[in-house]
Structure formats: C-alpha cells, structure tokens
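User: Hey, my collaborator sent me this sequence without any context and asked if I could get a structure. I don't really work with proteins. Can you help?
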Amino acid sequence: MSYVRKKKTYRLKFPHYEGLEIQMKGLTIRELTGSLLHLAEVKKEDAKEEDFTELLDLFASKLIDWNMVDEDNKPIPATREAMDDEEFDFILEIIYAWLDAVIGVDSPLKQTSSVGDQHQEPPTPKATL
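Assistant: No problem. I've predicted the 3D structure and written it out in structure-token form, which is a compact way to encode the shape of the chain:
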C-alpha cells in the first residue's frame, strides 16, 4: 500500500482586520531555498522592481482564496491582477503572516521524552570493578 501525502494548506486570520480569512498553499523546499532566500539577501535600498514582482508572483501562485470585498461589497478575486490594486503594505503584511505560518514553529516541543528512563534525580555513580 502506498502513502499519498495531502498538501498542507494554511488558513490565515487577522484579528485587526475583522473577518479577513485567507487560505494559502505551503512552500516547497526549492521555493524556500531559491526565491525566498534570494529575496531575504536583497537589501531594501538595492531592491529592484523584479525582486518585488518575484515575491508577489510566488505569493499569488500559492493564494487559494480570500474573503475580501470592495466598498460595494463585491468579491475581490484572489488573483495576481487584483493584488496589484491593493496597497503594498497590506499585501506585505499578509505575506509575512503566511511565511510565519509556513516556516514558524507552531508550539513549543514537549519537555519530556517517551524514549528511555525518566530520572528525577541524577543517576548514582557506580564503582568500577
């Protein structure tokens, strides 16, 4: 029997944007080590338009859905084209939240191990024979 891995998706919520929910795909190792690490190395003053375009294109390719509507309560499509009409700092905040969800640590690791003995006090040294 074979294992079919289901790709993980992320549902982002923003308490300061009441009701906003965004569903995103994860990143592959190639995407993380290629595009994103390259972008992390680019200094803000050295950034070129294509650096931002690459980041926005990658983000748009991973965007599954969002529940944003315009002032007339019409749905804003979850597309790269619609993203171009949004404010950059707003989209960047979403991107950071997504990256934090993908590469951040969900919760602290358990402090106990299920492997080996659990000693409450240090072991007693044994004399050599």
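In plain terms: The chain has one domain: 9-103. You can pass these tokens on to your collaborator as they are.
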